[in-house]
Specification:
Elements: H1 7-21, E1 34-39, H2 50-68, E2 72-74, E3 78-79, H3 84-93, H4 97-114, E4 125-126, H5 130-145, E5 149-159, E6 164-166, E7 185-194, H6 200-205, H7 215-225, E8 227-236, E9 243-248, E10 259-262, H8 267-272, H9 278-289, H10 293-297, E11 305-313, E12 320-326, E13 337-340, H11 346-354, E14 363-364, E15 383-384, H12 395-409, E16 412-418, E17 423-424, E18 426-427, E19 437-440, E20 444-447, H13 475-478, E21 479-481, E22 488-491, E23 495-496, H14 498-501, H15 505-508, H16 521-527, E24 532-536, H17 542-556, E25 569-572, E26 575-581, E27 591-593, E28 612-617, H18 628-635, H19 637-647, E29 654-655, H20 658-680, H21 693-712, H22 719-735, H23 742-755, H24 760-769, H25 786-789, E30 793-800, E31 803-811, H26 816-825, H27 827-833, E32 838-844, E33 848-853
Parallel strand pairs: 1-2, 1-24, 3-4, 10-12, 24-25, 26-29, 30-33
Antiparallel strand pairs: 5-6, 5-7, 7-17, 8-9, 8-16, 10-13, 11-12, 14-15, 18-23, 19-20, 19-22, 21-22, 26-27, 26-28, 30-31, 32-33
Helix pairs in contact: 1-24, 3-4, 18-19, 19-20, 19-22, 20-22, 21-22, 21-23, 22-23, 23-24
C-alpha cells in the first residue's frame, strides 16, 4: 500500500473497475425492496457546474447507502436536451442543433463519469433522440384522445422586423427583440394547449399526500393553482343582448360596483366602444399590446385605463355604470373582465381615485356610519349597507345570500375558479418534439397514426432566425396527405414545450430500452413512484406540477397505477462563491471577481472605490465560479464530495471555501495514514472473551458512530453531522491504545464501510488494501450492537469543599450510598479527608461526590 494518498490514481482505477464489473447496473431481481433515487436531469449546456455536482453528490450518497442497506436501487441519468440555446447556437455559429447538443452531452457525460457517480448508464435517455420523442409524441396523442389537447388563439411575442415569434427570454427589459432590436408586439396565433385545469382540484388536494415534500414547495404549488371560491355575475351591456361576465370572491360587495373593466384584447372591447371613443380605444389597445404580461400586472406600476364610452347595468341596483378597459386586466385570466368596487378593493380604490370614478360604500365596521367618507378602501368583513334587502346583514353571511339571490334572478351563480391556466405547449421553434397532428381541410386536426411515429425532425433546415418557424418553411415536410381521407393536408409546424419532455422522463427510466411501448406497465408500477427526488427550488412549481399532471393523466389512461410521481423531494440549496460588489455601479459591472481584489483592502481596481465582500450564487457574470475539474485535479473527487456534503445541510446554501476543501483533503489523508499504519502493523488475535476498558471504550465509539451516521442518513439527510461522526471515529481509532485488538480491526472496517457512501473511491481502495476482494459497496450496512453502547464504568469526580481533587473509576449505576462508600475509601479522598470531621456529603449520581469537612 502506498504511504501517500494519491486520489488521481485510485479514482480512475476504481471507476474503470466499477464500469467493467457493472457495479451500478440496476438489479433485475425483485426479492429485495426497491429504492428509486433520482436527480433532476440537466440541460446539456456544455459544462457541469458546482450546482450540478452538489445535486448529484447528494443523490449518489443516498443511492450508495440504500444499496448497502439491502435495496435494489435504480439511479439513472439523462439529458433534457431540447430547447432554445441549441437553436441559437445554430443561428449564431452555423452548427446544427443536434450536433451542438450531442457534443455537449458527450462532454458532460465524461465529466459525470470522472466524478464517479454510481449511475446506471444503460438507462441513459436524451429527450432529443427520436427513440425518446417518439414516445413524447405518443403521450401527446393520449392527451388528444382524452380531450385534453386542444387549439385556441393565444398571444405571442412578435418581432415585426424579423417577422418571427420570440420566446420571453429573447425580449429584453425594454421590450425589444434581442436580435433585431425591434419593439416587440403581441400577436394572436392559434396554438396548442393541455387542459391542466381539468386536474386543478386533484393537483391541489393531493398535495396533502406528499408528506415527504418541503412545506414551502407545497405552499408554492397551492398558490400557483390558486383556488378561489366565489360567484360568477353578469352585467348586461346597454344597447346589446350581450353581457359581461365577471368572477368575484366578494359577492357581498356587488351593490358597490360602480364600473366594470374589460381586458383591452377582450372581443367585447370593440363592440362596446362608442363611435367617439374608437380612435382612443384603438390606440390604447395597441399600446398595451406591446407590453408584457409581467409589466401589465406588476404591483408597483400605476394602473392605466380609459373609458370605452359603453355602459352596462349593475343588475343588483339597476344603475348604469361605465365600461372601461385597463392594462391590469388580462383576457386569459378568469373571464377577462373585472367589476370595480373601489370602496372595498385597494387596487380599485386607487384606480377610481385616479380616474374620478364613483366610490360607493356598501360594507362598514359594525356600529360605524355608512356616510363617513373613505380615505382608503375598507377590505375587512363588516355589516352590509346601501345594499337593498341585505342592509344590516353581516358581510360574511351576505356572500352566500347574494349568490342565492343572483341565482334566483338569473344573473349569477356560485363558482370555484383557479388561478391556474391551461398549459400553452406550442413553440414556434425547430429544436423540440414535433406535434404529431396533420391539419386536413375536410377532417380538421387528425392525429398521426401510431405506426408512423416518430414524426422526425428534418435535418436540412435553414436557421436564419427570421421569418416563420424553420419547420414551416419546409414544404416537402409540411405537405402530406390526410391520414383519414387522403386529401392534401399540412403537418403541424409547432413543436412542444420542453417541459413536456421532462414531465415523464422519470417513467421512461423504468424501462428505458423498450422500443415497443412507452414503458412496461409492470416495470413502471414496480419502480415508481420515485423514492427520493433531488433538485433545485427553482423547479418547485412548473416542472413538479406538470410531472404530477402527467402522472394523473397517464393513470386515468390506465398506463400506471399510482397518483403521485415523487414520494420524497429534497430541494438542495445553491452553491455560492466569494465575490465583491461595487454598490455605486449597476448591472454586470458592479461585480468584481475576487482574484482581482486585495482581500485585505478591497477596492475597485478601476475606480478605487471601496467594495462590499459577500457570497453570492456562482455565475460567470460575478466571476465567482469554481470549475469542478479544477477541484478534482487538485484534491480528487472524494475530497470534493466530502466538502459538499460536510459544509452545509443539503437544503441550505453552501458557501465555497478553499480552506474547508483543504480541511477535508487533510481528513482523508489522516484516514489513509491510519489504514496504512494498520496494514503495516501486526494484527491482533487476542480475544479471551473479556474486553479491556480501552477495548470497551473503542467499541462504544465504533457503535456510536454506526448509530449516529445511520440516523443522520435517514430523514432529512444530515450529511454534515454524519461526516462529523466519521471524524470522531477516526480520532478514536488514532488515540486507541489497543491497536493489537480485534476491536481495532472492527473499528478500521467500520470506518471504511461508513465512509463508502461519502467517499466511494478511497473507501474501495482501503477496503481492498485491508484484504477484501469484493467491493465495499456490496457490503451490508452496519447494525448497531446496543450492548456496546452500554457504559459499565464511569469516571466519578472527587471534590472536597467543592474543589476538584481527582477522579476514580466506579461501576455505572450505583446508588448514592455505594458511591459515597467507594469515594470515601478512595486514595484520592483519603489524602484530603483523613483525620477530619465530615460534616456533609453531596452525591450527584454518576457524576461526583463532594465532601464538606470541618
Amino acid at each position: 500500500m502506498e504511504s501517500r494518498y494519491n486520489p488521481a490514481s485510485i479514482e480512475s482505477k476504481w471507476q474503470q473497475t466499477w464500469a467493467q464489473d457493472g457495479l451500478d447496473r440496476t438489479p433485475q431481481d425483485s426479492d429485495k425492496p426497491k429504492f428509486y433515487a433520482l436527480s433532476m436531469f440537466p440541460y446539456p449546456s456544455g459544462n457541469l457546474h458546482m450546482g450540478h455536482v452538489r445535486n448529484y453528490t447528494i443523490t449518489d450518497a443516498i443511492a450508495r447507502l440504500k444499496r448497502m442497506q439491502g435495496y435494489r436501487v435504480l439511479h439513472p441519468m439523462g439529458w433534457d436536451a431540447f430547447g432554445l440555446p441549441a437553436e441559437n447556437a445554430a443561428i449564431d455559429r452555423g452548427v446544427h442543433p443536434a450536433t451542438w447538443t450531442n457534443q455537449n452531452i458527450a462532454h458532460m457525460k465524461r465529466q459525470l463519469q470522472q466524478l464517479g457517480f454510481s449511475l446506471d448508464w444503460e438507462r441513459e435517455v436524451a429527450t432529443c433522440a427520436p427513440d425518446y420523442y417518439k414516445w413524447t409524441q405518443w403521450i401527446f396523442l393520449q392527451f388528444f384522445d382524452a380531450g385534453l389537447a386542444y387549439q385556441k388563439e393565444s398571444a405571442v411575442n412578435w418581432d415585426p422586423i424579423d417577422q418571427t415569434v420570440l420566446a420571453n427570454e429573447q425580449v429584453d427589459s425594454e421590450g425589444r427583440s434581442w436580435r433585431s432590436g425591434a419593439k416587440v408586439e403581441r400577436k394572436l396565433l392559434k396554438q396548442w394547449f393541455f387542459k391542466i385545469t381539468d386536474y386543478a382540484e386533484q393537483l391541489l388536494n393531493d398535495l396533502d399526500k406528499l408528506s415527504g415534500w418541503p412545506d414551502r414547495v407545497k405552499v408554492m404549488q397551492a398558490n400557483w393553482i390558486g383556488k378561489s371560491i366565489g360567484a360568477y355575475l353578469e352585467f348586461p351591456i346597454v344597447g346589446s343582448e350581450e353581457k359581461i361576465g365577471v368572477f368575484t370572491t366578494r359577492p357581498d360587495t356587488a351593490y358597490g360596483v360602480t364600473y366594470v373593466v374589460l381586458a383591452p384584447e377582450h372581443p367585447l372591447t370593440q363592440r362596446v366602444t362608442s363611435a367617439d371613443r374608437k380612435d382612443a380605444v384603438a390606440a390604447f389597445v395597441k399600446e398595451v399590446g406591446e407590453e408584457s404580461e409581467i409589466d401589465r400586472t406588476a404591483e408597483d406600476k400605476p394602473k392605466r385605463g380609459i373609458p370605452t364610452g359603453g355602459t352596462a347595468i349593475n343588475p343588483f341596483t339597476g344603475e348604469e355604470i361605465p365600461i372601461w378597459i385597463a392594462d391590469y386586466v388580462l383576457y386569459e385570466y378568469g373571464t377577462g373582465a373585472v367589476m370595480g368596487v373601489p370602496a372595498h378593493d385597494t387596487r380599485d380604490f386607487r384606480f377610481a381615485t385616479d380616474n374620478q370614478l364613483p366610490i360607493k360604500t356598501v360594507i362598514v365596521p359594525e356600529g360605524e356610519d355608512a356616510a363617513k367618507p373613505l380615505e382608503a378602501a375598507y377590505t375587512e368583513a363588516g355589516v352590509m349597507v346601501n345594499s337593498g334587502q341585505f342592509d344590516g346583514t353581516p358581510s360574511v353571511e351576505g356572500k352566500q345570500k347574494v349568490i342565492e339571490y343572483a341565482e334566483s334572478q338569473g344573473f349569477g351563480k356560485a363558482r370555484i375558479q383557479y388561478r391556474l391556466r391551461d398549459w400553452l405547449i406550442s413553440r414556434q421553434r425547430y429544436w423540440g418534439a414535433p406535434i404529431p397532428i396533420i391539419h386536413c381541410p375536410d377532417c380538421g386536426a387528425v392525429p398521426v397514426p401510431e405506426d408512423q411515429l416518430p414524426v422526425r425532425l428534418p435535418e436540412d433546415v435553414d436557421f436564419s432566425g427570421k421569418g416563420a418557424s424553420p419547420l414551416a418553411k419546409l414544404e416537402n415536410w409540411v405537405n402530406v396527405p390526410c391520414p383519414s381521407c387522403g386529401t392534401p393536408a399540412k403537418r403541424e409546424t409547432d413543436t412542444m414545450d420542453t417541459f413536456i419532455d421532462s414531465s415523464w422522463y422519470f417513467l421512461r427510466y423504468t424501462d428505458a430500452n423498450n422500443d415497443r411501448q412507452v414503458f412496461d406497465e409492470t416495470k413502471v408500477n414496480d419502480w415508481m413512484p420515485v423514492d427520493q427526488y433531488v433538485g433545485g427550488i427553482e423547479h418547485a412549481i412548473l416542472h413538479l406540477l406538470y410531472s404530477r399532471f402527467f402522472t394523473k393523466v397517464l393513470r386515468d389512461r390506465r398506463l400506471l397505477n399510482f397518483d403521485e410521481p415523487f414520494s420524497r423531494l429534497l430541494t438542495q440549496g445553491m452553491v455560492q462563491g466569494l465575490t465583491y460588489m461595487n454598490p455605486n455601479k449597476g448591472g454586470k459591472d458592479k461585480w468584481i471577481p475576487s482574484h482581482l481584489v486585495d482581500a485585505n483592502d478591497p477596492k475597485d481596481p478601476q475606480t478605487g472605490e471601496p467594495l462590499q465582500r459577500l457570497y453570492a450564487t456562482m455565475s460567470k457574470s460575478k466571476g465567482n465560479g469554481v470549475a469542478p475539474e479544477d477541484v478534482v485535479s487538485k484534491y480528487g473527487v472524494d475530497t470534493a464530495r466530502m466538502f459538499i456534503l460536510f459544509k452545509a445541510p443539503p437544503e441550505k446554501d453552501l458557501e465555497w471555501d478553499d480552506a474547508d476543501v483543504e480541511g477535508q483533503f487533510r481528513f482523508l489523508n489522516r484516514v489513509w495514514r491510519l489504514v496504512h499504519e494498520f496494514v503495516s502493523s501486526p494484527k491482533g488475535t487476542k480475544n479471551n472473551g473479556q474486553l479491556t476498558k480501552p477495548e470497551k471504550d473503542l467499541r462504544r465509539a465504533i457503535h456510536t458512530a454506526i448509530l449516529e451516521v445511520t440516523e443522520d442518513m435517514e430523514g432529512d439527510y444530515q450529511f454534515n453531522t454524519a461526516i462529523s461522526e466519521l471524524m470522531k471515529l477516526s480520532n478514536a481509532l488514532t488515540d486507541a491504545p489497543c491497536k493489537d485488538s480485534p476491536v481495532y480491526v472492527e473499528g478500521i472496517e467500520t470506518l471504511i464501510k461508513l465512509m463508502a457512501p461519502f467517499a466511494p473511491h478511497i473507501a474501495e481502495e482501503l477496503w481492498n488494501e485491508i484484504g477484501h476482494s469484493d467491493s465495499v459497496h456490496h457490503q451490508a450496512w452496519l447494525e448497531v450492537d446496543e450492548s456496546a453502547l452500554v457504559v459499565d464504568e464511569i469516571t466519578l469526580a472527587i471534590q472536597v469543599m467543592g474543589k476538584m481533587r481527582g477522579t476514580i473509576q466506579v461501576p455505572a449505576n450505583l446508588d448514592k450510598t455505594e458511591l459515597e462508600k467507594l469515594a470515601r475509601e478512595s486514595e484520592v479522598a483519603q489524602k484530603h479527608i483523613a483525620g477530619k470531621e465530615i460534616k456533609k456529603v453531596i452525591v450527584v449520581p454518576n457524576k461526583l461526590v463532594n465532601f464538606v469537612v470541618v
